[in-house]
Amino acid sequence: MADRLFRAEGVTKRFGGLTALKDVSIEVDEGSIFAVIGPNGAGKTTLFNVVSGVYRADEGAIWLGGSTLHGLGTHRIARLGVARTFQITRLFKQLSVMDNVILGLGRGDIPMGGLIRGPRSKEAVDKALETLAAVGLEKSADTKAGTLPYGDQRRVELARAMAMKPRLLLLDEPCAGLTHHEAVNLAEVVRQVRDTGVTVVLVEHNMHVAMGLADHVAVLDHGEKIAEGTPETVQRNPLVIEAYLGRGESGESHA
Amino acid sequence: MLYLVTVSTMVCIYIILASGLNIITGYAGQPNLGHAAFFGIGAYASALLTTKVGLSFWAAMPLAVVIAASVGFVLGIISLRLREDFLAITTIGVNFVVVSVFLYFDYFGRALGLGGIPRPSIFGHVLNKPEYLVLVVFLVAAVLLVCWVFSRSRLGLMVSAVREDELAAHSLGLNVTALKLAAFVFGTALAGLGGSVYAHFMTFISPYDFAFPVSITVMCMVVLGGAGTFWGPVVGAIILASAPEIMRFIQQYRMLIYGGLLAVLMIFQPAGLLGADSVFVRGGARLVARVRGRVVQSG
């Protein structure tokens, strides 16, 4: 059995009267792909924002390896090895693709002398190109990131996160807005990232993608974890089917 | 001749101010509508250190830079956590408060200002205006060199990332607050330098030299030239600091035309004359391409 890399225990997050996450616990094995699925508004992105320090959990504990993430600022959590992408891509649009990826190198921890020197050392450029090649974008290195097609922008964001050499990679709906073909390619890249030893947690609205990719799945609905297990068992769970398709006669689904 | 020297010196001072503001607003993306406050702090610090403490210009100038940067540091810690629009309003407030302090305390000469500020001297020789201009040109060159290194550095790239997307910068492990603060301190230090140079050029300063409209003028220079570009603030400062002199014959319509030009520019060239998508940059690129093409054909 692999070691647990990531643990969230009893995480609760409230916004005023709304409980976005209620007593959610998940455990992720090192080197696995873990999917958090659930209908819109289930609290998936909130969970990511709590883990990456954008929000602070009201209750509960979050651990990466032996260190607690609870209460740390976003950039400190990133420096511990948590990288993420966003549901709606957040690239540095005016900067080149290469600069976007270079900014991920070193997780922001740059020695004083390195601040004054140019960012494009041979070592940095090589690493960035290598990362871009992994997502198939090495030819676009000098393009301004904001001018790329949307699917490519998503891949740049993934490359930027990969450049951090994270221990835990959080992907927020990586396939949202992609064509089927692009989504299949991206899933393959995610698998390759996992194979280099990175642990991946992804939030996915698209059941099909999540089920095909994940080793382990947790299902959120209205901020609560309603099911967990391998993709096969989760798919057969009546609670999950109900959350996704609603109660009632079959065929009346709106999913 | 002396008139030309005076205008040139003022252009140089504005280049220093605009380059400083460009670090804060252009690179780091933090609106600062109170840049003149730090200009004033540098000027008053340098004036007081020479007239009341008895230091020479050469000692007072670096101290004025440090004092302006220190005030920038403290105000930055307090205000840089604010969102953009609130930061803009806060910096306006800072400008008014600083001018009020100059007006209120006897030590700062109140509305009468401070006079008798000495010109710098070298080996006992007091610099006259043209000689002072030579010194100022060297200072501008030094400032531009530092800004150039910054714009090409990893630090400059990280600061630009903060401007582009704060949350994304955070999640790459960048200490966004520290980067904003660094840009703010750097920019206000340059404003302090501009202030010191101004005080020892005019030999007399008063609070209204550093009032809110000056902040707006410097902001216009940065925006006109192209915020976040290296040459933008230089071009903007040259145009806007010399235009009122060139357009002297239109007298009271000056501000009208000035304002009208800016409005037109914002509508048609929001990124500034040297910014991305500017007609000048695209036109220049096309020209270079055409010349190259011709060289290739003839060669």
Describe this entry's structure for a reader.
The complex is a heterodimer of chains A (255) and B (299). Chain A is an alpha/beta fold and 255 residues long. Chain A has helices spanning 44-51, 74-79, 97-104, 112-116, 122-134, 150-163, 180-195, 207-213, 231-236, 238-245; strands spanning 4-15, 18-29, 33-37, 59-64, 67-68, 82-84, 168-172, 199-204, 216-221, 224-229. In chain A, strands 6-7-8-3-9-10 form a 6-stranded mixed sheet, sandwiched between helices. In chain A, strand 4 and strand 5 (67-68) form a beta hairpin. In chain A, helix 3 runs parallel beside helix 6 and helix 5 packs across helix 6 (150-163). Chain B is an all-alpha fold and 299 residues long. In chain B, strands 1-2 form a two-stranded antiparallel ribbon. Chain B has helices at residues 2-27, 35-51, 57-79, 84-104, 129-152, 154-164, 166-171, 176-202, 212-225, 232-246, 254-268, 279-298, and strands at 121-122, 125-126. In chain B, strand 1 (121-122) and strand 2 (125-126) form a beta hairpin. Classes of the chains: A alpha/beta (255), B mainly alpha (299). At the A-B interface, helix 2, helix 3 and helix 4 of A face helix 6 and helix 7 of B.
What's the SSE blueprint?
The complex is a heterodimer of chains A (255) and B (299).
Chain A: E1 4-15, E2 18-29, E3 33-37, H1 44-51, E4 59-64, E5 67-68, H2 74-79, E6 82-84, H3 97-104, H4 112-116, H5 122-134, H6 150-163, E7 168-172, H7 180-195, E8 199-204, H8 207-213, E9 216-221, E10 224-229, H9 231-236, H10 238-245
Parallel strand pairs in A: 3-8, 3-9, 6-7, 7-8
Antiparallel strand pairs in A: 1-2, 1-4, 4-5, 9-10
Helix pairs in contact in A: 3-6, 5-6
Chain B: H1 2-27, H2 35-51, H3 57-79, H4 84-104, E1 121-122, E2 125-126, H5 129-152, H6 154-164, H7 166-171, H8 176-202, H9 212-225, H10 232-246, H11 254-268, H12 279-298
Antiparallel strand pairs in B: 1-2
